[in-house]
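Pipeline run #58 for the internal structure catalog. This entry was flagged by the ingest filter as a single-chain record with no existing model, so it goes straight to prediction. Upstream metadata was stripped on purpose; only the residue string is passed forward. Reviewer on rotation: M.T. Logging verbosity set to normal.
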Amino acid sequence: MTRLLALAAAAAALAAGSAAATTPGRLGVRATEFHLTLSRASVKTGRLLVQLQNAGEDVHDLRLRRIGGTRTYSFPETSPGGRVTLSLRLLPGRYRLWCSVANHAQLGMRAVLRVRR
């Protein structure tokens, strides 16, 4: 009976570890005129849910690219009060984030995210 309980406990611990490993990280990005505010400065590598919340008065979007990389992740234009969420898989490194609408990035709508191992 003791051995059966030990096996059951080990199986439960393994299942819990698997669930934790597959749970994506989360990052909130708040857009206002003319700032991007990240909910955290760094996240772990792997799957990440990124949610853009437009708390401003203008339409905003979001672009994300690893510094030195070539792939750009694009969030659609989001109306004031709107939200959009994308699931991304990011490698370790530093990523630039910016709003590509008009001259918003030049006005300060940019940020840097660190993705760590």
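catalog note: The helical segments are 2-22.
catalog note: The chain has one domain: 24-116.
status: ready for reviewer M.T.
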